[in-house]
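User: Run a structure prediction on this.
Assistant: Running it now.
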Amino acid sequence: MENDKHVTGGEVAGDRHRLVVLVGSVREGRFGPVVASWIAEQAGVHGGFEVEVVDLADFDVPLALPAASPKYAGDDYPRPAGMAALTSALERADAFVVVTPEYNHSYPASLKAAIDWHFTQWTAKPVAFVSYGGAAGGRHAVLHLENVLTELHAVTIRDGLAFPNYFTTWQNDHPSDPETPAYAKTLLDQLSWWATALRTAREASPYPA
């Protein structure tokens, strides 16, 4: 399935939050866009979010980084022009769902590069995880991501979703377990709560990073 974008602009209506669903894998034949489309659909049903699916395969995200840190360079950080839309999407987001597979007990280099090219875009924002893989369902990847994003002052959500052996447990681009939407709602409820709390805090005073 190709990337399914739910792009919105301007102000968010009512109490809804801007949610970026980030597809972390750029591997040939990846399953990530299918998972991302499904969780975006669940977020739409939830009603608390304006959803944008952002696929790293659509952007130029080099592995080589500038000498300066994005934490201190701020708006002067020399990102490639092909990354501008990605940076803008991360900047305007109130919350994230990171969709990741597990490669050799960790997450893809493409995702690490996208994280490392940014800093303040993650700060004081909540991040939930939806992972997929073999027997572990991507859980090792999520454990590593929790450490990395905590370093960037993001708030990681405890109740994520993991899909072990996704190649046998999904049918017609949806999980076959009928309880899965209920688990997704728990994730999204927690993400919405944290998005409200953190956005209110950011608006009240700058985060002391």
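Residues 7 and 198 are 22 Å apart (CA to CA).
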